[in-house]
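> tool_call: predict_assembly(chains=three)
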Amino acid sequence: MKGLDRITNPFNDDKVISNCGLFGMMSTRGRKFSGRDVILAMANMHDRGNGLGGGFAAYGIYPEYEDCYALHVMYESMAGKEQTEAFIRTAFDLVHDEEMPHRDPASSRVGGAYTAGTAPILWRYFVRVPENVLKDMIREDARKDIKNIEEDVADDYVVKQVMTIDTQIADAYVFSSGKNMGVFKGVGYPEDIGNFFCLEEYSGYLWTAHGRFPTNTQAWWGGAHPFSLLDWSVVHNGEISSYGTNRAFLEMHGYYCCMHTDTEVIAYAVDLLARRHRLPMDIVAKVLAPPLWTAIDRMPGPERRLHTALRLTYPALLMNGPFTIIIARQGEMIGLRDRIQLRPLVAGIKDDMLYLSSEEAPIRVVCPELDETWTVKGGEPIIGRLGGRVITGSESRAAAS
Amino acid sequence: MKSYLLPQFAVYRDDDKCIRCKVCVRQCSFGVHAYDDEDDEIRSNESACVGCQRCATLCPTGALVIRQHPHEFRPNANWSEEMLLDVKRKAETGAVTITGMGNDKPHRVYWDHLLLNASQVTNPSIDPLREPMELRTFLGRKPDGLVFKDGRLITDMPPQVMIETPIIFSAMSYGAISYQAQLAFMQAAQELGTLCNTGEGGWPMDFRRFGRNVIVQCASGRFGVDPDYLNQAAIVEIKIGQGAKPGIGGHLPGEKVTAAVAATRMIPEGTDALSPAPQHDIYSIEDLSMLIYALKEATNYEKPISVKIAAVHNAAAIASGMVRAGADIIAVDGFRGGTGAAPRVIRDNVGIPTELALAAIDERLRREGIRNRASILVAGGFRNSADIIKAIALGADAVYIGTAALVAMGCTLCQQCNTGKCAWGITAQDPYIAKRLNPDIATRRLVNLVRAWTLEIKEMLGGMGINSIESLRGNRLHLRGIGLQEWELEVLGVKGAGQ
Amino acid sequence: MLDGEGPGPGARPGVAGVAPGAGCITLDALGRSYRELNRTLRALTARRGVSRISVTNVLGQRYIGTGLRGEIEVMLYGTPGNDLGAFMDGPVIYVYGNAQDGVGNTMNSGKIVVYGNAGDIAAMSMRGGKIFIRGNVGSRSAIHMKECGEKRPLLVVGGTAHDFFGEYMAGGTAILLGLNLGPGEYHKANFIGTGMHGGEIFIRGRVDPYQLGAAVKISQPAEDDMRLIADAVGEFAELFGYDVDEIMHENFLKLSPKSLRPFAGLYHAGSRDDSYNGDGAGECLGE
């Protein structure tokens, strides 16, 4: 077991506390646009971070490999790269690999104060799960009755391999592992990271971004947000005071929290609830940020039973403390504030575009004239879905009843 | 409801010595002593006695002895008398028990397990009575380095505040303490060339002339905070937490909010002055940064901004974030820090010792290469000059003293600050009681205390062969631990004695 | 530093007494950091003969008007950043757009007029002056507002508010008009006035008792309350071009603290007291 936590958490804190600014934008019609605007929006929120981490998740960027898992990997040594590539060749069918395009780290001002002007080796691999592995896994899988079993066991397999690279191979860390999406992140201000990765040259229909303000100087590229697993990505602002409880529960379900960040916990919780337990996203939001008991007590019978059942079944996944998160996956972007609105979240809509942001000004940078903009209420998810729909809190309440 | 609480103190009056002068009757603000005309006798209601020793101290003939009450419950190591009384008290009131002063539990005092070094043979110790000995300290952010151009210095020095001794007076608000007590702090700070802290109860207009020696607080209540308040002080301190009650707010009961207190806090007379637990514009580290820079904007970047937190489990990581959020000074207050009023259960169970928090914070900031970007102030239980010098060796720039300063004025730690009845006039708002504290005498006592401690610090520094305080700051080689376990030595970053 | 002096952008309809012209300086905030912008504003405010400053292209710059003193009107076009007018003492700020979080934080005197919405904690700890928001406010607005002698702050919100409106309120007046609520629609906020121990909230439109904190009592506004409301609504209507009578036609509710000491019984000094009846943790416990 390699001690990732020793890289991300050298001082052995209970958890690495980190706050920040968030941004997300999505075309619910699936129109693609470059990363230029999201970089401009993050630059406007420069003051919310402190230059120790910035990152982006982009969806729909690899149409030519859309049926492959895209592995974005960072290496801190050639040995790490060689070892990982040997592992990838045995575990997957490798379709294509290449260095991630990037500009000169020094002139892009990445790396933070302590490793200024340097960057790790950044490589991407487009892979498939080998047919024979899939067959074996499906044969051994007890869950014969589920739809898309092939996709499901493939996903499980990928998660396992990613965890193996992250926890077993020195100097290697996987940024993202989803299909037709990718995470670009590192040490620096987000606008510099975006520029470094040439994100203006990518074309996606959904982008999320994060500017980090950690309470320690750990300048490690893997420690930046978004945090991603399969095609989930999470950016997060705040501090989860229930972290210990959440983590203990998730470890019981086979998620090893090797990063010691509360963001990681959110990503695993969402994977467990939405992918493995197949709960709809608006219900997932109610697990993470459930209504208060006083509100549940006022609900009509069926709704009250539903919310009571959620709180009794998943109490350890209630995310307590101040947080705003933007969760994304293929075809969906979800913004959520904690129950008592301790971290900010603003939403904006213009035609088919949904914007989510810690502040309104960055949205205005990208889109000066909005159809509507509002401060999001706590515990009420704002969900943008492909197919031209945005579901706001009251609608998701209706969906839940 | 009949109370089942037994008295905690017994009053022993030597009738032969008592001359019926009634000093005790007048002096007891808790109503213990009463004179019976018919019998020509002074009787005492022991239930009301808090053990403050005011009557015994002022009795002209020494006729009074106040002792812990000798009644005894059946001994029980688990259910001590304190535990029994606490349950009974709750059963009678249904309320949270409030108390004053710092944590009085017998936890390990780390100062007492640290030993200082002295010079022998290889370098000479210095005699501070004849040789120069510098204690001057500057509070504020220091640059990472200096830049010269054509032989001229072009680096702008961030704002600094100079103190002549590394001892400053802790935050105590007008309202929690009396007008006279706050005046004494202001006068003493001015005379000593050091600082005192207004706490978060505003800043009386009469005291604005002491601005150069004053730290003002901007806390969750925002009492009395306006542009003048911010700009007339030397330092603005954002109070996040207090050692005696980490994680909860403050609460000055309405009966202490007199007309003058109300005017200073800028609130209506007689209403509770509630300081919420959090500052409602700070729910995260980047919010802290926002308030720090709002204050810098409001003071034109001319003053160091301090941020005070209670010593808690993740203090080191939090402090590191505070520095990067723009704090020029970090103040950390340990669990023995005093309080005007705190729920006893919180005072006694929440937070960690200031010694360990200080060591962890200094270590973390150094390992991250940002120790120069903030001064560290430490508070919470300094009882003597040795505690102070050990704190400096652990990495503090200066220390806040609160309880010790109150003791200098007369306090006996009877823990009744929250009642408003302080018999020594320190935490009283009732003008009849408050005027017992003569501000000029109190000032003398404070100045004497700090002078004596300053001299002792110089003696100890000289003994180590050091003639300037910065050579001791963070110099843990001058400390050794005794009677400590491995993990404790590790947190403190010191070797064991003899190692 | 300056982009020229002279006519500013055309004044919007409904702005009383603001016409571009002499004494008005125009600044372009595009690409300017907040430090530079605010330094310029401070310098201009101190300059004689300058009575109005118009700032265009405001995009997220924080602290505009923070700690600012003096007789000056500032017109902001765009979206000002957080802590607009924090600690402010005197000036008048107009925002032609939405404002973000912390409008008028700990403000001492002056006026802020927002033609759109405001974010969270508007009027937090405000001690004096007036804030008019045409649209909605976020959560915890009017939190811990206070008052002091002559200083009685006023917050008027044309729309509705999120949770914890007026939490810990200790003074001043906050008015929620609900102009954007549909017929029969309730205000959005829960926990209104939690821990309130001073001041007053007036609500036009519907709230359910469950939406109120335990420290709050509901009543019908008295005559002098109605005069205060009419004055505030009058100023609001003039600023934003509403019909006063139409607004005043609806019923108002008055929310005020049950006690100046909502937590009085919650704490006990721990001494012996035979007269105590132990109903301390009474009705004012927070939710």
